[in-house]
């Protein structure tokens, strides 16, 4: 008809924008805290690349962990252990890069947690299982399942436990990369599958670090070593560790992994002396009791008449109170 006109490119773009707006009103991303999330499509390419840069390290972490699983089933235990070690380096790098570029996002946190479950949960569990299978098949299966369960619990607890007053110098429980380091060091030091070794060795290498992951013992994070003011100490130490891993990977790995695990009991034993000599800041502050990790605390009823009954029962009714 005479009143109609052909649709221009501007009209097409306007209709596409209206369609996106209608979809965004029906489906909206939110973070764990309830804050609205900005879609990547609304960011300019430079900001989008900066936001996604840490996730590239996380993706490399996950790929190395999955490759380690495949190599473990092929009997290439040393290479599988080295790939888990590479995953640890990439896991440290993605957090450092995210803080450096200011790209700590809810997506990045969840992606990192899923990658860690593969690299430090499934990969070490499969490595322990295949490495110890020739001599102890049943115990190897049980140890692998126990490791995976503790790693998943450790990562889930870390995701839901948000305590802004906690001392950032410490982890609650052995961090999953530190636990994986014990398996890596033991495999690199011994190499071949376990045939004639004492059964205590798989327990120490597989079960003890897994139990420490799910524990409430505190381990130093040593994050302060990555700060610029400690580079004078960090750089020579990193060079020394790199040289040791290159020439004597088994011995150096055992010293680092088991030495880190021993920092927890040694720190507890030396706490009185360090407090007396260096002050209260030299020891971990007392832990505050946190709410349940399984069930959230229910809000008290608005009816004031229910208050004394709740107090008489020792807490609110429902799963959280029980």
UniProtKB/TrEMBL annotation:
PROSITE patterns: CDP_ALCOHOL_P_TRANSF. It is a multi-pass membrane protein. The chain crosses the membrane at residues 51-73, 79-102, 138-156, 168-188, 200-219, 231-248. Residues 291-322 are annotated as: Disordered. Keywords: Lipid biosynthesis, Lipid metabolism, Membrane, Phospholipid biosynthesis, Phospholipid metabolism, Transferase, Transmembrane, Transmembrane helix. Its EC number is 2.7.8.8. Pfam families: CDP-OH_P_transf. GO terms for molecular function: CDP-diacylglycerol-serine O-phosphatidyltransferase activity. It comes from the Bacteria. The keyword Transferase applies. GO terms for biological process: phospholipid biosynthetic process. It is found in: Membrane. It is an enzyme of class 2 (transferase). This is CDP-diacylglycerol--serine O-phosphatidyltransferase.
